[in-house]
Amino acid sequence: MRFQNKVCLVTGAGSGIGRATAVAFAREGARVLVADVNGTGGEETVAQITATGGITLFINVNIADRQQVGGMVARAVGEWGQLDCAVNCAGVTGGKSAPTHEYPDDAWAQNVAVNLNGTLFCMQAELTQMLRQGGGAIVNIASAAALKGHPNNIGYCATKHAIVGMTKTAAIEYATRNIRINALCPSAIETPMLMDGRLNLRNNPELREKFTNDQAMKRMGHPDEVADVALWLCSDQSTFITGHAMTVDGGMFA
Fold it and tell me: How far apart are CA 167 and CA 26, in angstroms?
């Protein structure tokens, strides 16, 4: 197992890509700290992991709160003594769609608080521990919207672009300190956020067809397909890769 005796932290692990990643880490032998603002979802992820004999704990955390983020990393280290890998998956869409000149302040603020500030707070806390112990790997979940325009949601698009910038900057800063930092840019993935959230693709077949047709494979991705790449980027199979924004996109950018 690739992550035997490793400690891995996954934010946004209460559903979707985060849950799939946490479950995959546990399946590969890791001890997994499941972190999410959604207590019910987080506990469901823990139950799924423990049902197959995995080792895991849940912590309820709002990543927009720096103090809570510090406590999250401290919990992982306090329980298991180290932090080898972190996948920062927690994020929001802002909940509203509007052209740029009408984009609501509250949607902008929510995107900045969670996607931008929250990812930064996570990286800072994780890096501090990884520097202390001599190494580690971080994967930030961005989006296809980090690489192209995203009409009617400038807050989401801007903050996901920023995640790629933060990833590349930090990757350079810590490349000689045995810490690798990469980003993943998934396209349309069948997650609760996309299927049941602002866009509600589950009940909007025309929009779902558009998302599907944007991808060369003519289908949406599955959370497990993103999780598999996140694990690879955290593993010893990718030791010469850092600062990369990797698409998981079914050929959208081909």
Answer: 25
127-181 pLDDT per residue, tens: 999 999 999 999 999 999 999 998 999 999 999 999 999 999 999 999 999 999 9
Same domain, 105 and 151: yes
| 5-35 pLDDT, tens digit each | 999 999 999 999 999 999 999 999 999 999 9
The total number of structural domains that make up the chain: 2
Range of the domain at 195: 191-220
Residue 152: DSSP 8-state: T
Structure tokens at 170: 């930090």
Residue 213 banded pLDDT, cuts 50, 70, 90: confident
pTM: 0.96
Rounded to whole angstroms, what are the CA distances from 104 to 94, 96, 98, 198?
9, 8, 8, 14
CATH number at residue 178: 3.40.50.720
CB 16 within 8 A of CB 249: no
Where in the sequence numbering do the catalytic residues fall?
156
Query: Which stretches does DSSP call E strand in 142-212?
Result: 179-186
Cα gap 42→58, rounded to integer Å: 6
Residues 37, 62 contacting (CB under 8 angstroms): yes
215 and 151 in one domain?
no
Predicted confidence (pLDDT) at residue 192 exceeds the cutoff of 90? no
Amino acid at position 254, single letter: A
To which residue do tokens 């955390």 refer?
Answer: 61
Looking at the fold, whether 129 and 178 belong to one and the same domain comes out as yes
